Amino acid sequence: MSKMKTKSGAKKRFKLTATGKVKAGQAGKRHGMIKRTNKQIRNKRGLTTLSPQDARIVKKYIPNGL
């Protein structure tokens, strides 16, 4: 039987925490920063954890838990 493969797009975008939550980059930081308030820009730094509904989908793409 063949090995389970990881989606290469998912391994670049998501990481799993030790407790099994999924970390992802914040949305809305690519362009158009002039429109955003300074508070929005500050709060979108770093990573965020996905909601359980979204994390369930992403975990199917990362079977080995990269």
Task: Label this structure with key terms.
single chain, 66 residues, alpha+beta, three-stranded antiparallel β-sheet, 3 helices
Question: How does this model look, in words?
Answer:
With 66 residues, the chain is of the alpha+beta class. The chain is 33% helix and 15% strand. The protein is built from three helices and three strands. A three-stranded antiparallel beta sheet has the order 1-2-3. A hairpin with a 5-residue loop joins strand 1 and strand 2. The radius of gyration is 15 Å and the shape is elongated. The mean pLDDT is 94.
Oligomer status: single chain
In this structure, how is the largest beta sheet organized? Answer: 3 strands, antiparallel
Structural class: alpha+beta
Using the alpha-carbon principal axes, give the shape: elongated
Counting DSSP E segments of at least 2 residues, the number of strands comes to: 3
Mean pLDDT across all residues, rounded? Answer: 94
N- to C-terminal separation? 21 Å
What is the string of helix and strand elements? HEEHEH
Name the beta content range.
15-25%
Radius of gyration: 15 Å
Within the largest sheet, what's the order of strands? Answer: 1-2-3
